[in-house]
Amino acid sequence: MIRANLAARLLASITLGLALTLPAHAYPQKAWRFQVLLDDKPIGHHNFTLRLEHSGKQILQSQAEFNVSFLGIPAYRYRHNTVERWEQGCLTEIASQTHRNGQTVILTGKKDKREMVLATDKGEVVLAGCVMSFAYWNPDILKQRRLLNAETGEYHEVRVKSLGGESLALPGKSVMAKHYRLETDRFSIDLWYGPDAQWLALESKIEGGRSLRYVIDPTRQSLQVKSRHA
Q: Where are the domains of the chain?
């Protein structure tokens, strides 16, 4: 409970601190709002908001909530919140708090000179070079050989396959999308991006061969907010 409260304060302080450092002309630029399906059954949502400063620095806030029931009885509950700061395409700060069926996982990290220092439940981890998380919103992750799990602090080796173009059904329309498969030694994730490199969908196989999918929420579609100074 003490660590959970600490994580909540860290997330709140980092969010507030980053907001206070934003200049007046910085505000949310993009938002991705996904409905999450387990074997085609809605179980929750995962929302992402990206803020952009004119200096090129970015702040990403992510919030997920899943609830799975079996015969009307709650069987699985998941809550996840993350705040990330990016500079020149690299992750420089992260704070996340995850609740999974009553268990809490906390991750914090900050880049110091050329190294990212992470504090995890398993101890301190130091990562060299330009670190990127599984930032699906950023297609540059498809060029990476390793990606950081923002929940556990694991630094996975990844392999990316291009599966070509295909028609992707979105609420009220279909669009041509580029399909990629991101593989690790433990799992694989399929991703779809539109002609403008906009992230459109995600699918992954989980335990028992079940399918977890992210689809654009038909009631709160993916947004791109224009600059008020444009």
A: 2-156
The mean-pLDDT minimum among 39-43, 138-142, 152-156, 170-174 falls in 170-174
**Residue of 214, 164, 168 lying closest to 62 (CA atoms):** 214
User: Within 13 Å of residue 6, how many CA atoms lie on the same side as its CB?
Assistant: 11
pLDDT at 225 over 70: no
- C-beta separation of 120 from 140 below 8 A: no
Residue 37: HSE in the Cβ half-sphere, 13 Å Cα cutoff? 12
Contacts 24+ apart (CB under 8 A), 144-151: 147/182, 148/91, 148/94, 150/62, 150/82, 150/84, 150/94, 150/96, 150/107, 151/80, 151/82, 151/96, 151/98, 151/105, 151/107
C-alpha distances (whole Å) from 49 to each of 15, 88, 89, 91 are 12, 18, 16, 16
57: which 2 tokens?
A: 């620095």
Residues 158-205 pLDDT 10s:
999 999 999 998 878 888 999 999 999 999 999 999 988 999 999 999
